[in-house]
Design goal:
By secondary structure, the protein is of the alpha+beta class. It has 2 domains: about 200 residues, 2-Layer Sandwich (Cytochrome Bc1 Complex, Chain A, domain 1); about 190 residues, Cytochrome Bc1 Complex, Chain A, domain 1, CATH 3.30.830. Helix 1 crosses helix 7, helix 9 crosses helix 15 and helix 12 packs antiparallel against helix 14. The chain is globular. It comes from Nitrospirillum iridis. Pfam families: Peptidase_M16 (PF00675), Peptidase_M16_C (PF05193). Belongs to the peptidase M16 family. Its cofactor is Zn(2+). Keywords: Hydrolase, Metalloprotease, Protease.
Amino acid sequence: MSAGTGIQVTTLDNGLRVVTDSMVGVETVSLGVWVGVGTRDETPEVNGVAHLVEHMLFKGTPKRDAYQISSQIEDVGGHLNAYTTREHTAYYGKVLKEDAALALDIVSDMVQHASLDAEELVKERTVVLQEIGQAEDTPDDIIFDHFQATAFPGQALGRPVLGLPEIVEKLSRDDLTAYVQGHYSGPAMVVAASGRIEHARMVEMAGEMFGDLPKPQSWVQETATYHGGDFRDERDLEQTHLVLGFEAVGVHHEDNYATQVLSTLLGGGMSSRLFQEVREKRGLVYSIYSFASHFAETGLFGIYAGTGPEQVAELVPVVCGEVVGVVGTIREEEVARARAQLKSSLVMALESSMARCEQVGQQMLIHGRPIPVAEMLARVDAVDVAAVERCARRLLDSAPVVTALGPLDGLESYDRIRTRLGH
């Protein structure tokens, strides 16, 4: 199946989808495997197993030990990496075009034949526990875990990607094996490649290399239910870190792009309302920005700010005022500027084979098809003032999430913040 200029898709007999995005004029190939599972596909008893599996797949197979996985790709000047999110896991790399087969062979070996050696697990579990400790020591990192957990308390979508230390230190080889066997099947996976690659050759290689995937097993993903709420952690820090958030739409919602335009308009750049009012005019922060996260059936809209303890009392009312003040005051020129920023970021990504590879891989998992760039740009262009207003009103209809770390004496009560936001 062709999905637009240079993009082709083939589904193998085992359900594995292969998507390629051919780029003329480059000498490299970016490729990888995107798996449609992540932290929200874990049970509470094994929170962190998806991320630990990601680590352990680099620790060796019967064919290659951990050093050989690294050295074989670096011997040809390439690199491999991976990441885990709440809904996806990816294993990817970049090599010269003549080494694409080697890179795919290594990745396919990892995802199908990982040894998950017990001794390696002991060491890697310690590494992950150190990673968790490092995140805990980084307030402008860990605050987003608290934000997620407060928005979706006691739910899979609210649990941390890295896992809780008391659970991670108990995860066994059997836990990892069960997770891989239960989730890493053909229909749940996409092989994506971008760069100097022929689709037919990629399909041929994938067919040869991915013959040992486990049979699909059914599992029911827990539906997420948003809750407003308040989380505060008094710490002796130089700064107070804040995230104020609301429920947003899911990734398939028609207002997905309008929400991104709102985020850009409100806190997406130096010309945004929050940056201009909070930093430029009042000097209350060094860093402030907004963001929108879209999941399968719901989403989050948030505003992060880091400020001095003496500025907290002034900052929060100003931010609340800017959020409430969006409704009824959005100007066409603001929306046009935000649309231009989003479109430029989409088009600029086309210059990177890795970004294009990741884009088509994720789109196959989320939408079941690659989304042509022209279609994405048209959807951004279709966002008007009315759509952005609608998104802003929807945010304010949801109970807010307030998360804060650091010195908190100047921070108003949750009920007072709710009142400022019209609740």
